[in-house]
Amino acid sequence: MKKYLLFNFLIFFSYAQSGIEIAKMVDLRKIPKDQSNITKMVLTNSKGKQRTNIVRSKSMDGNKKQIMWFMEPKDDKGVAFLKIENDGKDDEMRMWLPAFKKVRRISSKKRGDSFMGSDLSYEDLSNRKIADHDYSRLDDQTLNSKLCYVLEISPKKGANSSYSKHISWIDQSSLMILKEQSFDKRGQLKKKKEFFNKELNDYLVMERIFVEDVQKKHSTEVTFAEYKVDTGISIKLFQEKNLKRLPRN
Amino acid sequence: MNKSNYIVQKFQKNQSIFILKLSLITIIIFIPIFTNAQDTGLFIMKKMDQLKKPADSETQIKMTLVSNKRGKERSRSRVLTIIEKKFEDGIYNMKSLLRFSEPKEVNGTAFLTWDRIDAKFDDQWLYLPALKKVKRIRAKDKERSFMGTDFSYEDLSGRNIESDSYELIGEDIIHGTECYKINATPIEKKTQYGARLIWVDKKKYLMKRIEFYNKKKEQVKILDIPEHVKNGEYWTQTKLVMKNLKNGHRTELEIIKVIYDQGLKDNVFTESYLKRK
Amino acid sequence: MKIFKKLTFFISISFTIAQINYSGEVTAKSMNRISNNSEINLPYRILSFKLGYTLGQLDINTVTGIEYRNNTSKSNYVLREAYLAYYPEWGEIKLGKQIHAWGSVDGNNPTDNINPYDYYYLFMAGAGRKIGVISLSSKIYFGNSHLEGIFIPKYQKNRFPYGEEDFPLSIPSKPKIKYPVKNEFEFGFRFQTTIGDGDLGLSIFKGNDRAPSVNAANVFWEVEGGPPSLESLLGYRETLVRGLDFVTFFGDFTVRSELALFKSKTPILNLHIIKSPLSLYEFQQDISYSQYVIQIEYTTNSDIILSGQLIGNSVQNENYEWYHVTSSELVDFPYPEFQPGMGNPIAMFSELALLLNSTGVLMDDRLELKGNMMINLDEKGNMFSGSIGYSPWINWKLESTITKFIGDKDDLENTFTIMEDFSNITFNIIYNF
Questions:
Q1: pLDDT tens, residue by residue, C379-391
Q2: How much is the pTM?
Q3: Domains contained in chain B, number
Q4: C219 touching B (Cβ < 8 Å)
Q5: Distance CA A51, CA C417 (A)
Q6: pLDDT above 70: percentage of residues in chain C
Q7: Chain A residues with CB-CB distance to C305 below 8 A
């Protein structure tokens, strides 16, 4: 039952945020050359019912090239997705549909609001352009015994955002975002996000993301397993033909 | 002959040979004063239709199909008989049955047409005894060729005079006859043609030529009727030639014999009769 | 039995279980007429099973199925695909019985003529309605483009539901084929490249029609001076298809399109001038026809996919000749009506049709709603269908579909009128593993 997905499913999140300098600092943080993982997403509705999606994912070049294979639910198994970002042109997105034995090119522009039916919207998963937002620094706070910068981020008109503002807690030592609250256009709290990272080979990568849509009473938990970085993924992996077969690792 | 016989209140279609079918409003015989070419065009067409038509007719025709493949001309002949009858039941104004007798390969093949008064596509059936089937001709088939000839199913069906608008665009001499030249453009769009140019004999109001243009305004076919002969009260075409300009084909029809007003029965023009010998 | 041999083969070479991948689907289905609730008895795939084994750059893939009929409880096993796939640096090579897919449009592909169709599964989209062919396929990737060549040594025809009462477009009995295909070898090439924001494909395929047509006839005159009687002798025309397909994007809209030009000819029958009976006449056909599809697709903010297709097919040129074999004389028999032997099966419904569909998913993917409409534009006729799919537990789905055909009550020969009796409600229980 899968439909067409987003483009920027970021394996690790690089939110450009904080007071402009903080935002820029975060932006310049070291990122891996390539990464691979198994992403598990558990969706929980207001009645407590759960739904799980599992995707095996590989990317390189700061997520400019991404390839992913759907593992669960089982009726999606075999479906795979390739995204190639080109400078100056629209992204190229292709899906392999085993039921049709066909590679299908899809639009990178029009995508629905939520990624894979989760509480994360495409906007939530995209890089925020520093120039499209206003940053103001609020008082620092301690969160989980970590001292954080607290920023209020307001999207400008050009950002085309569905939010009126975000409040983000950024760990001062790692410059990783730990928590965020996002408010809708009416100024009401819409989403609460929590981020958990871990150290992997010199980098800090996402381990777990928890998003709660307080208005819909719905939550999503994203976990990343078998996370590997800088394994020397070849650029040749990001080719149509590889959509048809699962990689060995 | 009382001229008032020609005044008819309702629409009628031309009753001459099956090729020419134009439904016209029959009007008073005097020539009114016209102020524009369209009135004239329509008037001429109406006059053509108002020519005396028989109650029924039986015509024997020799049909020659000439094809031109890579410069080589090849011809093939058939003999067929058409019977036609005027109907006045309010739905149909004419029914006709065409049957091939020669050569033996097409012997028995028959084509039944019920000419509708309204603008809907006529009811047409093609009986192929060789394949043991009766094929109902559908509106979407109207462009297809009838039995490999240069006449399409639409060419063999009636077209209401109200379906086109007529404009007199000039005069011309065709087959040694002075003719009016009329441009007919469809109002009723369900036709394969974009326009037709019609030459009508100035004195006798007999159709002498039609040039057919498709929707892209390309000339696709020409129908020539070089000769008419007066047979008793009725004018009869003796020869018709339809040329297909796209492939160099032509179909020639030579009228061998014609018998009028025999009092043909209605039941002859039915689907069940179609399948008889 | 074949099944066991294949299973043993796989088990014996699979020392590393991790290299095996499999997936499958089990379906229980019931189909009833809307008009009188009578059951529609047609076979369906109760099990579809994919098994694959990977050994380095080599894959061995099989797709098998079990076809089942509710009323007779009879089942039969079908090996739909079994092929080796090798993935070198430059591309892919696949050898074996397999299903191919060409073209940019969804579902109705005029340029996709490699695999014959299984008409029992005509209403299924995708690979489900295709029959695998033993073939060699080789695809070379270079830059933004690729070139594929497909070679088929053994001809396969469509599977038609002969004598199947419940199949709406009934074909009474299996016709006898007098002239089976002599030149079985078929091949095709497809080149695809990226131009601007879209993909463009050019293809060519040469093969044999997948449906028979009249190639000759025995003609008798039962009554002297009476009409002739033709006994049709069937064979398969040879057809060349040239195709063009593309997908491109305009703002939020995706535009997909395909155009296929077909040229069909009666094959050379080599009927012996002296040895043939006097009643034998050869029917030579030379037909050019085309099919096209234009599709526009849009996804709304709530992830509802809307798509519209305009499908057309027309005959450009028909040339027919009947020859008397023994005298080489041209004769004047009537021409049987032309039916295409390749191309999109939807051509038998209409010459110009509009297809609209929408798909939406709700409740975290648990609920799927689909709506379809086919509007015949050359004559009266419509088809409507709507379906609800609910997934109570993961990998399970309960689906209910209603399909209604509306024809022309004044026209009994209209395809949609004939299909009216096939209007149905279908229930499916599907389990994926």
A1: 889 999 999 999 9
A2: 0.83
A3: 1
A4: yes
A5: 44
A6: 97
A7: 3-4
Using a CB-CB distance cutoff of 8 angstroms, which residues of chain C are in contact with residue B78? 332
pLDDT score recorded for residue A4: 30
Retrieve residue C340's tokens: 């295409």
Residue C300 lies in a domain: no
Residue carrying the six token digits 């009796």: C421
Q: Decide if pLDDT at A96 tops 90.
A: yes
pLDDT at position C62, please? Answer: 95
Asked whether the beta carbons of residue C100 and residue A246 sit closer than 8 angstroms, the reply is no
Read off the pLDDT of residues B99-123 as tens digits, 9 standing for 90 and up: 999 988 888 899 999 998 887 888 8
SS3 per-residue string spanning A1-56: CCCCCCCCCCCCCCCCCCCHHHHHHHHCCCCCCEEEEEEEEEEECCCCCEEEEEEE
Question: For chain B, percent helix, then strand, then coil, each to nearest 5?
Answer: 10, 50, 35
Candidates B105, B146, B192: best to mutate against C (most CBs of C within 10 A) is B105
Length of chain B equals 277
Full domain range(s) for residue C409:
349-433
Please tell me the least confidently modeled range out of A216-225, B13-22, B235-244, C369-378. B13-22
Neighbours of C57 (CB within 10 A): 12
Is C91 an interface residue toward B (CB < 8 Å)? Answer: no
Q: Report the number of distinct structural domains present in chain C.
A: 1
Whether B30 shows a pLDDT value over 70: the answer reads: no
Can you give the residue range of the structural domain that contains B211? 3-274
Tell whether ipTM is more than 0.90.
no
Closest residue on chain C to A90 (Cα): C197
Residue C166, Cα to own-chain centre: how many angstroms?
20
Q: Does residue C134 lie in a domain region?
A: no
Asked whether the beta carbons of C372 and C383 are under 8 A apart, the reply is yes
Residue B184: other Cβ atoms inside 10 A: 23
In a domain, C286, yes or no: no
The pLDDT-based confidence of C104 (bands split at 50, 70, 90) is very high
Q: Do the domain assignments include residue C424?
A: yes
Which pLDDT score is estimated for B38?
Answer: 65
Cα separation, A115 vs C398, whole angstroms? 24
Amino acid at B274: L
Report the alpha-carbon distance of residue C402 to residue C387 in Å, rounded: 6
Give the separation between CA C303 and CA A111, rounded to whole angstroms.
7
Tell whether B277 is within 8 A of chain C (Cβ): yes
* Backbone conformation region of residue A111, classed left if phi is above 0, alpha if psi is from -120 to 50, else beta: beta
CATH number, residue B21: 2.50.20.10
Dihedral of alpha carbons C279, C280, C286, C290, sign = positive
Q: How many A/C residue pairs have CB atoms within 8 Å?
A: 121
Is A118 a residue whose pLDDT tops 90? Answer: no
Average pLDDT over residues A34-55: 89
Q: Which domains does chain A have, with CATH numbers?
A: 20-240 (2.50.20.10)
A91 touches chain C (CB under 8 A): no
